[in-house]
Amino acid sequence: MEFLSSRILVRPTDFERSRGFYAEVLGLAVYREFPGGIVFFLGQGLLELSGSSSGPPSANIGIWLQVRDLAATARELTARGADIVREPRREPWGLTEMWIADPDGLPIVVVEVPADHPLRTDVRGT
């Protein structure tokens, strides 16, 4: 299993307040923005704010892991004893996602970025 990219997912209780904190207080640079979310550079990784939550902070955090082949990864994770919380499926935002959880219930989304998705588009020349 090979992980190509990763990020920490945060579902803030107040999106604008959290956006201000990460952008202005911590001074994180923006990697990309999309409707309902923003991704910041976080050293060697990424931090994504998207959605919202009214639960405790521990319920608002997850891990995002990108893989080349989600179907093969699902088979490998199942063989290694991982419980698939949500089977792989194409999401409205264009990514193919599957959800698992660590032993404490921390959500982990395993993602395949399809070839036609904007994350694979080089926009430097535009």
Automatic annotation (TrEMBL):
Keyword Oxidoreductase: yes
Keywords: Dioxygenase, Oxidoreductase
Domain VOC span(s) in chain numbering: 2-113
DNA-binding found in the keyword field: no
Matches recorded under SUPFAM superfamilies: Glyoxalase/Bleomycin resistance protein/Dihydroxybiphenyl dioxygenase
A Gene Ontology molecular function term of the record: dioxygenase activity
Protein name (record): Glyoxalase/bleomycin resistance/dioxygenase family protein
Organism: Kibdelosporangium aridum
Lineage: Bacteria, Bacillati, Actinomycetota, Actinomycetes, Pseudonocardiales
